[in-house]
Each structure stands twice: as structure tokens, then as C-alpha cells.
Design brief:
single chain, 262 residues, mainly alpha, two-stranded antiparallel sheet, 11 helices, 63% helix, globular, disordered N terminus, disordered C terminus
């Protein structure tokens, strides 16, 4: 079978990312509520392009309503052990990028924590299908480039509603783009396959965990502004968490069943 050229590979990955990662921005504030109940943060919302953003949001919501959310609802009927395995695998596959951001944030303790989790779960935990680290007292935290930019002192910027990638501020939108370009595990066929499994499985798993929150937000008079504000509040708390550098993040301690990743 003929190998893809690098530009072709990037194009294929871009299509896949846009197809299945709508949840990353639009539906991902699951631990927003849990986070902000535990920390008081300032989250200014600047939305000068709101009419345009609302138009993009309508498209994003249609994609979610007719594609992603129904799949996530069906996924919730899968056996618990299967869902847990998908969650563990996707979480573990994301650890190298968490490690990079821990280093960029100048936090050696968090980076060692992440590296230890990845090493143990990838070996003893069978490529991450089993979370061995939590019972060993190595808790998981998350980090991304948007958080890193915030830790460096870069401001939020205006709200941007991206097609299929959802709502967020411009700082986090730049972080999403950088996250797509960084490949810490290389670009082999095996890594590409595992990455595809992680992206698809993790997206569905996280969307399923967010259904209670998004179902409740959709009952409010203005779903767009409710979701936008919840995302903004979560991201403010997430940046504060990065600045504090805790290895047991407040969001996880307070979650009580909310989703893990943003």
C-alpha cells in the first residue's frame, strides 16, 4: 500500500480532527461546574463577534445533535469495563502532551508525575487500558497549550466559535491549533493508528460524560451564552490550577462524576 506523503497525512488528520473533535470546545465544560464550585476565579467574557459566533454555534449544535450526542448516548449503554478501558486508554495516550505542557509551565513536580503515570500505565497497565497509577498514589492532572499560554500571562482575547471545534477564547483557539501540530510520540503508522483510536474513543467517551451537563444547559433560555460562560469560567479556573501547579488538581477532587478533560 502506497505511503501517504506528509501533506496528505496532515490533510487526513485535519479532516479526522474536524470530524470528531467538536466536543473539545463546544461540549467540553463538564468539569467546569465542579471546578468553579471549588475555586473563585475571574472570567471576563469579551464577545465582539457574537452574531457571527452564534451562526457558527448553530452549525456546531446541529452536528452535535444529529451525530456526536446520539453516538455518545448509545455508548453509555456499553459495559462499564469497556467504557473504563476506552477512558483509560485515551487519557494515557494524551499524557505526553500533558508532560510537554508541564515542562513549558516550569513545573518539574507535575512533569515527573505525568511521566511516571505514562510509564506505569503504558507497561503494567497494558498500553493504558488499565489505570495502575491511581492506586499507586500517582493522580492524574491535565494540561494543554491554552493553559500554558495563560500561565505565561497571555490574556484571554475575544471569544471565538470555531466550526466543529466549539467555543473558547482566542488564546485557547491558538492552543488547539498548536496541540494539533505537536506529535511527541512521532509519526509512525502504529502511532497514527493508536492516535486515531484515542481521538475517536476519547471524544465519544468524554461527550458521554458531558451529557448531563449539556442536557441541563440546553433547557436554559440561551444555550449559547450559558455554554460560552461556563467554558470561560472553567478555563479561568484551569489556568489558575496550572499556576498553582498542584498534582491533585482541584477540578478532579471536586468533580463527583464530571468529565475529566477540556
Amino acid at each position: 500500500m502506497r505511503s501517504l506523503t506528509y501533506p496528505q497525512h496532515l490533510a487526513r488528520q485535519a479532516v479526522l480532527l474536524l470530524t470528531v473533535s467538536y466536543l473539545t470546545g463546544c461540549a467540553s465544560p463538564a468539569n467546569v461546574t465542579s471546578t468553579t464550585r471549588c475555586a473563585q476565579v475571574s472570567y471576563p467574557v469579551y464577545d465582539p463577534a457574537e452574531p457571527v459566533n452564534r451562526g457558527v454555534f448553530a452549525f456546531n449544535r446541529a452536528v452535535d445533535d444529529y451525530a456526536l450526542a446520539p453516538v455518545a448516548r448509545g455508548y453509555r449503554y456499553m459495559p462499564e469495563f469497556f467504557q473504563q478501558g476506552v477512558h483509560n486508554f485515551a487519557s494515557n495516550f494524551s499524557e505526553p502532551k500533558v508532560f510537554i505542557n508541564d515542562l513549558l509551565q516550569g513545573n518539574p513536580r507535575r512533569s515527573i508525575n505525568t511521566l511516571g503515570r505514562f510509564a506505569v500505565n503504558s507497561t503494567v497497565g497494558i498500553v493504558g487500558l488499565i489505570d495502575v497509577s491511581d492506586p499507586l498514589g500517582i493522580p492524574r492532572h491535565t494540561a494543554d497549550f491554552g493553559q500554558t499560554f495563560g500561565v505565561w500571562g497571555i490574556g484571554n482575547g475575544p471569544i471565538v466559535e470555531l466550526p466543529l471545534l466549539g467555543t473558547g477564547n482566542s488564546r485557547d483557539a491558538a492552543g488547539k491549533a498548536l496541540n494539533f501540530l505537536v506529535a511527541p510520540l512521532g509519526d509512525s503508522d502504529t502511532v497514527q493508528t493508536l492516535g486515531t483510536i484515542s481521538l475517536v474513543g476519547g471524544t465519544v467517551d468524554t461527550r458521554a460524560s458531558l451529557l448531563p451537563l449539556t442536557d441541563s444547559l440546553q433547557k436554559l433560555p440561551d444555550y449559547y451564552s450559558a455554554l460560552r460562560n461556563v467554558v470561560a469560567e472553567h478555563r479561568a479556573a484551569f489556568v489558575l490550577e496550572g499556576k498553582q501547579g498542584a498534582t491533585s488538581p482541584q477540578a478532579d477532587n471536586c468533580a463527583q462524576g464530571a468529565g475529566d478533560d477540556f
